Automatic annotation (TrEMBL):
Source organism of this protein record: Cellulomonas alba
Protein name: DsrE family protein
InterPro entries associated with the record: DsrEFH-like (IPR027396), Sulphur_relay_DsrE/F-like (IPR003787)
Domain of life, source organism: Bacteria
């Protein structure tokens, strides 16, 4: 059985905790199941790439965001949108180890790859 790659774009931060948590939960569940996962942090979710910032999101009955992020980082790829990072003065030295900053062309390449499934939260 071939597993499709999953490309997830998270667009929300602490402004929309349920949407942010859903993106991270799906990414972590897919990674734990062995699927290739690429989680993109765009808009307000870009802040979660910084050390300690995932702890800022608290949501009842949900796995802590920092734990979900750790699962994805261990088994998948986490990327911050280049423009989103620039608008927030986030540079490569600011993000957690293992997180990259890349632009729309990379997102499009991943999303259009054969067998890939893209989801936006």
């Amino acid at each position: 059985m071939t597993t499709r790659a999953l490309v997830i774009k998270a667009t929300s931060g602490t402004d929309r905790p349920e949407a942010a948590n859903q993106a991270f939960t799906v990414a972590a569940a897919a990674a734990a199941a062995g699927a290739p996962v690429s989680l993109w942090l765009t808009g307000e979710s870009a802040w979660f790439a910084l050390p300690g910032r995932a702890d800022d999101l608290e949501l009842a009955h949900a796995t802590p965001l920092a734990e979900l992020l750790a699962v994805v980082l261990e088994a998948g790829t986490v990327t911050v949108c280049t423009q989103c990072a620039a608008r927030r003065d986030i540079g490569p030295d600011d993000v957690l180890p293992g997180i990259r900053i890349a632009g729309a062309a990379v997102f499009v390449e991943e999303a259009l790859a054969d067998g890939a499934q893209a989801l936006v939260y």
